[in-house]
Amino acid sequence: MRYWKVIFISIMIVVGIGAHYVQSALAKSEFPEFVIETVNGDEKALEGITITGQYGAVNPNQPLTKVKAGTLEELYEHLEITKEGTVYQEEKSYLDQMSGMNRNATIERLQEEYRNFMRGKGGSTSTFFENDKVLAYAGPFGFDPDHNGKLEIELLDKETNDKMTFQVKISETEVYNLINILDVQMVQDELVVMARSYGHGNPGEKEEVHVYRIDVETQELISDEVILSTEGGTNTEWTHIGEVSGSYGIGTVNYFVFNVAQMKGHRFHSATSEESKYVAYQYNTNEIVEITDLPDEVDGENVRNYVKGDSIYFIDTSDNNLKVNAYSIPNKEFSTFDIQTTKNKMYQNNVIEMTNDKLYLVNSDQKQAMVYVVDLSTENLLYEGNITFQHEKEQTDDYYLDIFDIKIK
After folding, report:
1. From CA 280, how far away is CA 409, in angstroms rounded?
2. Which DSSP state fits 274?
3. pLDDT per residue as tens digits for the range 122-153
4. Which residues 6+ apart lie within 8 Å of 120 measured at CB?
5. What burial class does residue 392 get, using C-beta atoms within 10 Å of its C-beta: 0-12 exposed, 13-18 middle, 19+ buried?
6. pTM of the shown model
7. Cis amide linkage into residue 295, ω under 30° from 0
8. E-assigned strands of 83-175?
9. Are 278 and 289 in contact (CB under 8 A)?
10. What residues pair up with 255 in beta bridges, in sequence order?
11. Which conformational region is residue 265 in: left (phi greater than 0), alpha (psi within -120 to 50 degrees), or beta?
């Protein structure tokens, strides 16, 4: 009897795997193939680029993935686009689908190289720091007072493979509803943890950005400093603290940049920014640097900001051309240059990634999407391409293509 159970389970596994691949093949026929069509430049610039997003279209048939949209069915699916073509979520293996389309390459590398160290830790890169000598963790990414207000610290010496594990009690955690880790750095013998704390009450009513400095040798909290706070606002006038996205990674950085805006309107509905400024926290000096000499146009509607190294980049597509602005924080210098493209129209949505002195930009609306690769050191456009249907007959009037992210291997 026992053997029949084993045989039955084996058959069910085979049938399940077969059904998955049959479903994947059907899914492939349901969804169109997108390709990146070269307009200008060398296609080699697309090596290692993966663009993630979602395709959707109203379909009167019965697609595999659907939600009700009036009397019709809306077909939609997450996808990845590379120079080789398109891969939809349904086409991926079962394990890949379980882990999602947006797996983090840095976390995957750490899990492969430091399997024991990474066991039981979350998938947020903001909780890790790495250099040539040490791999450090401070977490979990998000915790509340039920976690006893303690940071879990773990450090791995890469040369000796020795591991140090301890906990640090964070003061006054009972006044917070949630604490999220923003960044972890090593400054000499100190582990520096930056976190955003959310107070009890309405969302956004009381938020603070803390910097915790921890002595690794004594395993004690040296200081807890509040560098930014939203306390004192109302539901019609308040302060919003935003982290400026960038290629912080898990290595050494000198600055962490915020945009602090004075908001007016209704906290939970429509609101406008009356005034905003950029501030940078400098890890080595433990100081806040206020950036006050930026031109007004960096706050334009179609301007995306991004931190790379010691500079804040402002990618501007507001005047139907591509302009790259950069502000050097230590030098307090602002520079700008225009990129000549073949398009005489730019779209509202910009998705940005920067690595190896290159800017990767997908400029799109829900119908068209252009891909640009710019060499920041030479200020030259390396590549310009158009994301389009491989087969024109697959294009419908009611489709949309939302671009979420760019990943570079």
Report:
1. 28
2. E
3. 889 999 999 999 999 999 988 776 667 789 99
4. none
5. exposed
6. 0.84
7. no
8. 85-88, 128-130, 134-139, 142-143, 150-157, 163-169
9. no
10. 282
11. left
